[in-house]
Amino acid sequence: MSKIFDALRKAEKNRRGQKGAPKKISRKRKNRSGDGREVIIGGLDRDFSRSLYTLRNSIDTEIRDKGSRVVMITSSVEGEGKTTIAGFLARVIAANEMESVLLVDCAIKSSRIGELFGLDAGKGIVDYLLGEAEIGDIINTADPGVLDIVISGEVRQQSVIQPLFNSDRMQFFIRDVSEKYDYVIFDTSAVLDAPETSILSPQMDGVVMVVRAGKTKREVIKRAMMMLNKQGGNLIGSVLNRKRYYIPEFIYKRV
Ligand SMILES: Nc1ncnc2c1ncn2[C@@H]1O[C@H](COP(=O)(O)OP(=O)(O)OP(=O)(O)O)[C@@H](O)[C@H]1O
Ligand SMILES: [Mg+2]
Questions:
Q1: Which of 63, 128, 161, 249 sees the fewest Cβ atoms within 10 Å?
Q2: Which pTM value belongs to this model?
């Protein structure tokens, strides 16, 4: 997967190279609409890329009148594609160079964002929540001025983690980064596997559920949604991931 990100980075560099030196990005976006240009990113399937733009537009529609959008990507059970969607969504938003994005790995059970972006292991959100690091210590730059990343940090026991997700330090973190970035995207563990995900959900502006097409049962999705609702999470949409076309795609699009 990191190969894909290398390809993305290379394609963006080439694109910038054609336009001259990268412009300095204001952390506070002045123009939400950008120039309306769809950024074509090498290494991404075009339909997948389009669906990420659709997701980004849905987030903008659902979370209005806010200087920043703080969104959680989750799913009912493991392996539905949360990290893939969160990582590429962050990349796609950052690629238009008008909006700054912070991607935070709160998938403590299966953290993979660091590996995905080729970052070394180090201090992350858990270390900050435990008071063993400050916010400035855990921010990694993936693409200067537009995409920063916070990895999960040192592995700790689940029982240590859960109360931290509802702590004053977590609330302070969210408030602080939402003042600095246009989008803050949290990758998380599955709702039914990790109670800390539901605990975190009401602190978000919105929650996006990833559903693996043809695999996750309706009752399972419903149970996860009920858990989020119970905690006060604001479900703003879902993503049907890995949808297969049973008839050729160009025909499918016409029927
Ligand atoms: N749209 C997609 N097309 C092809 N492969 C995909 C797609 N989405 C996810 N995958 C693959 O499926 C696997 C699981 O994806 P991912 O790690 O994103 O899931 P997850 O929900 O984050 O899992 P976990 O619950 O373990 O954190 C990965 O190998 C990933 O590359
Ligand atoms: Mg994951």
A1: 249
A2: 0.83
